Structure formats: structure tokens, C-alpha cells
Amino acid sequence: MQDFGENIQQSHNEKLGRHLVAAINIEPGDTLLEERPLLVAPHWECHQLKCAQCLQESYVMCRRCQVFPLCMDCGQHDDFECEFFASGAGKAICKDILVKNYGICGLLKLLLLLDNPETKGDCQGLVGTPINLSDYRDGEGMWQEHEELVVRPLMESGLVAVLPAQQLTSDTLHAHCIRIDSNSFEVTARDGDTLKGVFVCGASLPHSCVPNTVVALDEQFNMKLYAAVSLQPGDIIYNSYTNPLMGTSQRQHQLRLSRRLECSCSRCLDPTEMGTHMSSMKCRECDGGFSVCEIEPNGRLGDWRCPDCGALLTAAEVHELQAEVGTALVEARGELQVYESLLTQYGPLLHPNHFMLLDIKQNIASILRAAALMNSMEQPCKKLLARRVELCSDLLPVCRAVVPGISKLYAIGLFEYLLALVELVELQFAESDLNKKEYVAHLRTASLVAKEAMDLLRFEPENSAEGYLSDRIAMELERIESDLKKYGR
Ligand SMILES: [Zn+2]
Ligand SMILES: [Zn+2]
Ligand SMILES: [Zn+2]
Ligand SMILES: [Zn+2]
């Protein structure tokens, strides 16, 4: 059994089965769990060969086994993996097994871990969980992808015959693919590409759309799980496997597809989604009313009703509108004016915090940011900079509300707002739209925003994307403080 340290311990109940709870009083930021990945692999659909050791792009193959890519820096990869194809049971397998079907890489690594007596035990937590294949077969999405990219190529490769002890059938291979998917976090290689890191313990925590933990992943793919809020002894440790900026129906759809999970967390049962109204519609009958989704006690989503006037909006009508906006969003593909006109068109029908409006606003803000970075605006147009500040600030209260406690989402939101604000007020000051006193007041706000963002990122590892973001914010803060010194007296 794994040693969990003093902060957490295992517990059991009927609904969740085995799970982890706080063992003592825990403070926000306290580490709950540290874990190395069982394996790191490219996504199934990845075609870019990656070094078997460091997972960065590589075009050369290992000279010894001639099967796995290996970059110039690494020189060697896992000995069992290499040996298996160089002179072990796999030596007769065609050398281009991986090159031809790179999608099998993750599963191939797992099969070799299972074949290695030294690592077989580490896999038990993963392969020991039963998978009900009939839940997945012929379902939407991943079954077909697994079949085409992984299972069929592996079955045809001759590998099954040289791993007789595992008694592999196409069903066992499908079950392994599902286990890899549902136990992985997205990790980032040093070259910036995303990969799947399989974490037996960390990725098997029960889900809540309002998690009480934060997952941190560093460049070496180490995972650290820390508390987002204070925990009391016995509190269940939750993680979230969905995007907090999605509305309830979207999150639930995604959780059903990826994890066969029906979520009934506090946010899913709250029609206002923690006061944000991210799924609420403008009432069609009365002025100023908002229709909220009626949720049955079992968590099932019903129709939308306005609490002010009682008017009903059927679930079918709402879903139709959502589908329409969804299609328009896909078709907008990076066109600033199209996004703006979507806001004008759908704004009057939805709550200002509706997740689809937030999605459109995020799209606009990121286009404006990219434009500012590339200096592609004719001259940095103050109107567009001001628009960016406005959009970033609209997102902040929602980011704050949906992830309580220490929140990377909110930290990133603050950073985006900070960049936009500083850029705008610097230009306004330079062009004398702001006097010294006004400029200083804005810089004071910016300084507070920077400090709050850095405070939220202080438990992240230094060598992680969030660690680098924190350094970036520190640089920005230094600049702000030096201007404050210069003008602030
Ligand atoms: Zn390498
Ligand atoms: Zn090799
Ligand atoms: Zn939920
Ligand atoms: Zn109404």
C-alpha cells in the first residue's frame, strides 16, 4: 500500500468506494500527495515522434532497439523497453512498428511495464480497476479512436503473440486505453507540447466541479496535489476533471463522455452556479428577469424558469440556442468582428455571465492580446486596449467565484487583466490622457493585482508553466513599482 504521509489517509464508503480524506487540519497550500507518473506518452492522435526518454521531438531512432525514437541528448531509454526489442521477445517484430503507428506508443509502454517483473506491481492500481466495456462500445467518441489508432494496429503488429502471459485480446487492449485516458493529466514537455501523464493515485480522486485541491505539474512531469482551501479531518479529497468555465450542462456532458460520471456536486445542484448565473438566460417575458435552470433533487436538469414572473423556457429551446451559438463560434474562427457581432446578437438573450458569452469574450481578448504582441495594430489603438481591459475585467468575478480558495484560473485571469491594464494606462499617460495622479492611481491598482496573482501561484513548482508565469508577473511588478517611485510622490 502507498504511504500517504501524515496529511491524508484512506477511507471507504458505498458511493465513492476507496478514497482519500484529510487526516488532520490542513491549511491552503499544504501538500497532500506527490506522485511520479506511471508513464508519460503522446496523445493517441500524435504523429510527431518523441524521444522515449524526455518526450521532446526527435527524428532519430535508438540505435540499439531501432524501435523507439531517442533524442541526441538522452542516449538511452528504459532498459527493459529497449532490451525487449533489441534482443528479447520482441526482436522479430518489425522495427517500424512505432514509426508506422505512433498512436500505439502509450499502450505499448504500458504493456512493457506489465511485462517487466520489476514494474508490474506499480501498474496494479491502474489495470486492477474493472472497466465495463459495454458502457463505452459503440458510444460517442473515443472507442472508434482507440480502435483505429491503437487497438487494431497493435493486434496486427504481432506483439500480442510475443506477450503471451498477458493474454491480450482486443477487449483487454480497449480497457487499457480507457484506463490510460481516465487516469491521465495533461502534462507539458520542455518543448511546450502537451502529453498524457498517467497518475495511478492522483488521477483517480473522486470528481467535484468545485474541487478542494490544486494539481501542480512540473517539467519533469512530477505531480503535486495541494489543498486549495482549509480542510478538516475526514473531509474528502476532490479533484476536478472538467473546465470550470463551462456551464453545468456542458460540464456534465463532458464528464459523461470522458468518465461515465454523473456529477451531483454542490455547483451542479445549484441553479445559479455559485451565484455566477453561468447558465442563466434573459427572461423573454419580463424586464430584468433571468430564467434559471430547474434542477430536480436527483440532479437531473429540467426547464428554465424566471423566478420573477414564472415564465418558462423549455430545455429544448435553450439547447437549440446553445447549439446555434456553438456553431457560430466554430465558424467565427479568429475573426474579431465576427465575435463582436456574436456578442451583440446573443448578449440580449443570455445572462451577462453566461458561459457562451464568456467564451466569446475570451476569444476576443486573446485576439487583441496577440495583436498587441505582434504590434500588428496600426498604432496601438487605445480603443482596442480599453476593450481588452474591459473584457478581462468582466471575466474576473466569474473566475474568482467558480474556483474557491487558491485558484490558478483566477491567477491567470488577474495576469491577463494586469497586462491589458498596464499597457493601456502607460499609453494614456504617454499621450497625456491621464495626469500623473490618475496614472499613479492605476499603477497602484496594477500593483495590487500583480501581488494577488503571485500570492495565488506561490505553491506552484518553480520549474513549471505556473512558476514561470509567476516570474513574469514579478518582472511586471518591478516595472510598476519603479514607475510608482518615479511618479508617486
Ligand atoms: Zn530525449
Ligand atoms: Zn532502444
Ligand atoms: Zn458537478
Ligand atoms: Zn421573467
Task: Write a brief caption for the model.
The chain is of the alpha+beta class. The protein is built from 15 helices and 12 strands. The chain has 4 domains: 8-36 and 222-227, no CATH class; 39-196, no CATH class; 242-356, no CATH class; 374-487, no CATH class.
Number of helices: 15
Q: Specify the oligomeric state.
A: single chain
- Briefly note the structural class of the backbone: alpha+beta
Reported for the largest beta sheet, the result is: 4 strands, antiparallel
**Which strand order spans the largest sheet, edge to edge or round the barrel?**
9-10-11-12
Q: What order do the helices and strands follow?
A: EEEEHHHHHHHEEEEHEEEEHHHHHHH
The Rg value, from CA coordinates, equals 25 Å
Mean pLDDT: 93
Q: Which distinct ligands sit in these coordinates? A: zinc ion
Distance between the termini: 62 Å
Determine the fraction of residues in helical runs and give it as a percent range.
Answer: 40-55%
Overall strand count:
12
Q: What would you call the shape?
A: globular
Low-pLDDT runs of 5+ residues are none
Strand content: 5-15%
Task: Count up the domains.
Answer: 4
Walk me through the structure.
The chain has 4 domains: 35 residues, no CATH class; 158 residues, no CATH class; 115 residues, no CATH class; 114 residues, no CATH class. The protein has 15 helices and 12 strands. The strands form 4 sheets. It has a 4-stranded antiparallel β-sheet. Strands 3-8-7 form a 3-stranded antiparallel β-sheet, with no helix packed on it. It has a 3-stranded antiparallel β-sheet with strand order 4-6-5. α10 packs antiparallel against α11. The longest helix is centred in the C-terminal third of the chain and has 23 residues. The radius of gyration is 25 Å and the shape is globular. One zinc ion binds next to loops. One zinc ion (ZN) binds next to loops.
